[in-house]
C-alpha cells in the first residue's frame, strides 16, 4: 500500500522547545516537500529536496531545518527560532525528471502542531 | 509576492448547481496547473490538472477552463453535491526537471447546501 505517512497526527510542545515532524514515503519519489498551512493563507513552501543529501529553502524557511539522508524520509525540525510555529504541516512528494504530466505532488495526511 | 490569486475565498452553492472557482497567475513560464481538494484535517488530493496547450479539460463533473492570453484558469463543478464541500486550491508550476515546486492559491472554502 503505497503512500506518504506523517507522524504524529497531533503534536503539542512547550514554547522554546525544538520539535521534529516525521515524513516517510514508499512511492520511490525523488522529490519531497514541506508546506505550512494557516487559515486563509493557503500552502506555503518551507523546504524541498530533489535528491538525497540535498535540499533547498522555500518561501518561509526561517526557523525550520530539514535533512534528507534517505530517499524515503524527509524530517522537518521546527526550532525555537520559529516565532509562530502553531500550524498544520503537510509533507508531499513527486517524481522528478519525468515526462510532462508526471510531476503531480502527493500529500500526506498532515501534522497539526500546537505550541503552548 | 503572491503569484497565483484565487477567488472567491468562500462559496455557497445549492445542491445540483454549478460551483465556479477562479485563479489568475502572473508568471508566464507556468506550465502546469493542478487543482487540489482538501477535506478538514486531511492532506490535499489532486483533483484535476491542465497544461496550457489545451483550453479545457473535463473529468466527470469537474472541468478546468484555461485562458492563456488572460492568464486565468477556473474550476467548474457541475451538479454540485454535499460531498463536494471542501477547500479547493489552485496551483501552478513551471514544470520540468528541477521545477516541480508548486505555487498555491489561498484556497476557496466550498459549501454545498441541500
Features:
heterodimer; A: 116 residues; mainly beta; seven-stranded mixed β-sheet; four-stranded antiparallel β-sheet; B: 114 residues
Largest sheet of chain A: 7 strands, mixed
Helix fraction of chain B, binned, reads under 10%
Please give the count of helices of chain B. Answer: 0
Report the oligomer.
Answer: heterodimer
End-to-end gap of chain B? 38 Å
| Spans of at least 5 consecutive residues with low confidence of chain B | none
Class of secondary structure makeup of chain B: mainly beta
Mean pLDDT of chain B: 92
The percent range for strand residues of chain A is: over 45%
Largest interface: A-B, 30 and 25 residues
* Shape by Cα distribution of chain B: globular
Radius of gyration of chain A over all CA atoms, rounded: 14 Å
Commentary on this structure:
The complex is a heterodimer of chains A (116) and B (114). By secondary structure, chain A is mainly beta. Chain A is built from no helices and eleven strands. In chain A, the strands form two sheets. In chain A, strands 2, 4, 5, 6, 9, 10 and 11 form a seven-stranded mixed beta sheet that branches. In chain A, strand 5 and strand 6 form a beta hairpin. Chain A is globular and about 40 Å long. Chain A starts with a strand and ends with a strand. The mean pLDDT of chain A is 90. Chain B starts with a strand and ends with a strand. The mean pLDDT of chain B is 92. Chain B is built from no helices and eleven strands. In chain B, the strands form two sheets. In chain B, strands 2, 4, 5, 9, 10 and 11 form a six-stranded mixed beta sheet that branches. With 114 residues, chain B is mostly beta strands. Chain B is globular and about 40 Å long.
Topology summary:
The complex is a heterodimer of chains A (116) and B (114).
Chain A lengths: L3 E4 L2 E4 L5 E7 L5 E7 L5 E9 L2 E4 L6 E3 L9 E3 L8 E8 L11 E2 L3 E5 L1
Parallel strand pairs in A: 2-11
Antiparallel strand pairs in A: 1-3, 3-8, 4-5, 4-9, 5-6, 7-8, 9-10, 9-11
Chain B lengths: L3 E4 L2 E5 L4 E7 L7 E6 L6 E6 L5 E4 L2 E6 L4 E6 L8 E7 L10 E2 L3 E6 L1
Parallel strand pairs in B: 2-11
Antiparallel strand pairs in B: 1-3, 3-8, 4-5, 4-9, 6-7, 7-8, 9-10, 9-11
